[in-house]
TrEMBL record, chain A:
Residue ranges of the TM segments: none
One Gene Ontology MF term: phosphorelay response regulator activity
Catalytic machinery residues: S11, H38, D131
CDD domains from the UniProt entry: CheB
Reaction catalyzed: [protein]-L-glutamate 5-O-methyl ester + H2O = L-glutamyl-[protein] + methanol + H(+)
EC nos: 3.1.1.61
Keyword vocabulary terms for this entry: Chemotaxis, Hydrolase
GO biological process: chemotaxis
Protein name as annotated: protein-glutamate methylesterase
Class of this enzyme: hydrolase
Cited SUPFAM superfamilies: Methylesterase CheB, C-terminal domain
One cellular component (GO) term of this entry: cytoplasm
Entries under InterPro entries matching the protein: CheB_C, Sig_transdc_resp-reg_Me-estase
UniProtKB/TrEMBL annotation, chain B:
Lineage, broadest ranks: Bacteria, Pseudomonadati, Bacteroidota, Flavobacteriia, Flavobacteriales
Name of the protein: Chemotaxis protein methyltransferase CheR
Occurrences of domain CheR-type methyltransferase (ranges): 1-251
Family matches, as PROSITE patterns: CHER (PS50123)
Record keywords, A-Z: Methyltransferase, Transferase
Record carries keyword Methyltransferase: yes
Provenance organism: Flavobacterium limicola
Alphabetized InterPro entries for the sequence: Bact_Chemotaxis_MeTrfase (IPR050903), CheR_C (IPR022642), CheR_MeTrfase (IPR000780), CheR_N (IPR022641), SAM-dependent_MTases_sf (IPR029063)
Pfam families the record matches: CheR, CheR_N
Length: 190, 274
C-alpha cells in the first residue's frame, strides 16, 4: 500500500499538537502532510515560521496552484478554504464558512479524498467542534486510512469523539503513537 | 470503495452544456471548487446523478440561474484586508493624484462592498470628483444588490473596525444611514460608480483604465484561464497603471510578470511598466 498524502484536521489545542508533530517527524519523512488548523481570520503566519525552525521538514503555508511535494508540511492560510485538485495542486477559495470555519477541515478532507482516493491518510486531532467528521467519512468511503486521536488524551475531546461517532476508524491512538505509526507507514513505502 | 465519485467526464459534460446553452463558461475554473459546488447543489436538490441535473439545467432556466448563483461566490466585505487599503492610500493614491481624470475598474465586484470602500477612500483623498469607478461582475443579481447599496447592519461592526484599521479618517457611520436592520450607503458615494455586467472569460477589453482591482476572483480559475484574464487586464491598463490582486493571488506564474514592477509585494500591488 502506497500512501501519497496525509491530511490533518485540528482545532482548539492544536498549536501544541502541531508543535509536537512537526518537531518529531524525521528528516527523510516522505509523505507530504496537509493541515487545517482553525485560526482567527486576521492571524499572521509567524507561528508557521516558528514551527519550521523546529522541524526537519519544510513547514509552509499552502499556496494557490502550488504542486504538492514530499518533505513538506503545508498549512492552510487563515480565512481561505484549502482544496486539493486531482492533479495534486492546491486551490484556495473564499466560499462561505463551513461548520463556522474557514478554512474548514471537511472541505480539505473531501477534496483530498477525491484526489487521492485510497492513497490517503486522514487524521482528526483535538478540537471543540464537529468540523472534520463529514470529511473523515468521505476519506474512509474512498478507501483511505483513518486515524483519530484518542479523545481521552486530547486537550479537547469533542472533535475526535464526533469523528468516532461518524465512522469506525482504523486507529484510535494517543498522539505519540500516531506519530510512531506515521513513521512506520512512511518507511514501508520504500 | 463505497463512495461512488462523480466522474470528471460527467462534470465536464455538464459545464459544456451550460456553456452551449447559456454562454457561461466554467470549463477552466478550479475543478475541485466546481465539483464541490455541484455536489452540494445535487444533494440540496435531491438529484441522483449529474446527468439528471444536466437535463434539469437545460430545460429549466430558473434552475439554471440558481446553479449560476452556486458557482458565483459573492462573499465579500468592506475594507477586506485593511492593510491592503492602507497600502492603497500610501502607494497608489499619490500616483492617481497625478492624473486629471481617473478611471478605476473593479473586476468581479460581487455585491459592491469593495467599490463603496474605494469611493470612501477617494472622497477622503479629495479625488472622487474626478474619478469614474467601473464595477463589473457577471452575476446580475449581485450587481442589482450592489446598485441598491443596502447592506445588513450585522456586518457594520466588523466593517467599522476594518475601516479604522485601513486608516479611515472620518467616522464610518457618516457614510450611511441606518434603516431598521439595514444601512443605506450615501448617494454621494454612488454618483460616480458605473455598475456593468461583464464576464471576464467571454467578454473583451472593457475600458482603458488607471487602476484595476480584481481580488479573490482569479483563485477560482485554473492557471491557463488566469493567464488569459491577466492579458485582458494588461491590455486594459494604461502604461504606468496599477493592478491589485487578492492577498493570496500572484502574478509570479503569469507570462506577464516581467511587464510589471511590484509596488507592494505582500499586498499584491503591481505597476505596469512604461
Ligand atoms: C469572492 S467574490 C470577490 C469579491 C471582491 N472582489 C472581494 O475580494 O471581496 C468573486 C466574484 O467574482 C465573480 N466572478 C466569477 N467569475 C467571473 C467571471 N467570469 N466574470 C466576472 N465576474 C466573475 C463572482 O460572481 C463573484 O462576485
Amino acid at each position: 500500500m502506497q500512501y501519497e498524502a496525509i491530511v490533518i484536521g485540528v482545532s482548539s489545542g492544536g498549536m501544541n499538537v502541531l508543535k509536537i508533530i512537526s518537531s518529531s517527524l524525521p528528516l527523510h519523512f516522505n509523505i507530504p502532510i496537509i493541515i487545517v488548523q482553525h485560526l482567527s481570520a486576521h492571524s499572521d503566519s509567524h507561528w508557521i515560521k516558528l514551527l519550521n525552525e523546529k522541524s526537519h521538514l519544510n513547514v509552509t503555508e499552502a499556496d494557490e496552484k502550488e504542486k504538492i511535494k514530499k518533505g513538506n508540511i503545508y498549512i492552510a492560510p487563515p480565512n481561505y478554504h484549502l482544496l486539493i485538485e486531482k492533479d495534486k495542486t492546491f486551490s484556495l477559495t473564499i466560499d462561505e464558512r463551513v461548520n463556522f470555519a474557514r478554512p474548514s477541515i471537511d472541505v480539505l478532507f473531501e477534496s483530498a479524498a477525491e484526489a487521492y482516493t485510497n492513497k490517503l491518510i486522514g487524521i482528526v486531532l483535538t478540537g471543540s467542534n464537529s468540523d472534520g467528521s463529514k470529511g473523515i467519512k468521505r476519506i474512509k468511503d474512498c478507501g483511505g486510512l483513518v486515524i483519530i486521536q484518542d479523545p481521552e488524551t486530547a486537550e479537547s475531546e469533542y472533535m475526535p469523539k464526533s469523528a468516532i461517532a461518524t465512522i469506525v476508524p482504523d486507529y484510535i491512538l494517543p498522539l505519540e503513537d500516531i506519530i510512531e505509526l506515521l513513521i512506520q507507514l512512511d518507511q514501508q513505502e520504500r | 470503495m463505497r463512495y461512488k465519485d462523480t466522474s470528471d467526464l460527467e462534470i465536464s459534460l455538464l459545464l459544456e452544456a451550460i456553456f452551449r446553452k447559456y454562454g457561461y463558461d466554467f470549463r477552466e475554473y478550479s475543478q475541485a471548487h466546481i465539483r464541490r459546488r455541484i455536489m452540494n447543489r445535487m444533494a440540496v436538490s435531491g438529484f441522483e446523478d449529474v446527468s439528471q441535473m444536466q437535463s434539469k439545467v437545460l430545460n429549466d432556466e430558473t434552475f439554471a440561474s440558481e446553479l449560476l448563483q452556486d458557482l458565483s461566490i459573492t462573499v465579500t466585505e468592506m475594507f477586506r484586508d485593511p492593510i491592503f487599503y492602507k497600502s492603497l492610500r500610501e502607494n497608489v493614491i499619490p500616483i492617481l493624484k497625478t492624473y486629471p481624470f481617473i478611471k478605476i475598474w473593479h473586476a468581479g465586484c460581487a455585491t459592491g462592498e469593495e467599490a463603496y470602500s474605494m469611493a470612501i477612500l477617494l472622497q477622503e483623498e479629495g479625488l472622487y470628483d474626478r474619478t469614474t469607478i467601473y464595477a463589473t461582475d457577471f452575476n446580475q443579481m449581485a450587481l442589482n444588490r450592489a446598485k441598491d447599496g443596502i447592506f445588513s447592519n450585522k456586518m457594520i461592526k466588523e466593517y467599522t473596525s476594518n475601516y479604522q484599521m485601513a486608516g479611515g479618517k472620518e467616522s464610518f457611520s457618516s457614510y450611511y444611514t441606518s434603516n431598521y436592520d439595514n444601512v443605506i450607503m450615501n448617494q454621494s458615494l454612488k454618483k460616480n460608480i458605473v455598475w456593468a455586467n461583464h464576464n471576464l472569460v467571454t467578454d473583451s477589453v472593457f475600458a482603458e483604465v488607471n487602476l484595476i482591482l480584481c481580488r479573490n476572483v482569479l483563485i477560482y480559475f485554473d492557471k491557463n484561464l488566469q493567464n488569459k484574464v491577466q492579458t485582458l487586464f494588461y491590455n486594459s491598463l494604461i502604461n504606468g497603471g496599477v493592478l491589485c490582486l487578492g492577498s493570496k493571488e500572484s502574478l509570479r506564474f503569469s507570462d506577464l510578470y516581467e511587464q510589471y514592477s511590484e509596488l507592494d509585494t505582500k499586498q499584491r500591488i503591481f505597476k505596469k511598466k512604461y
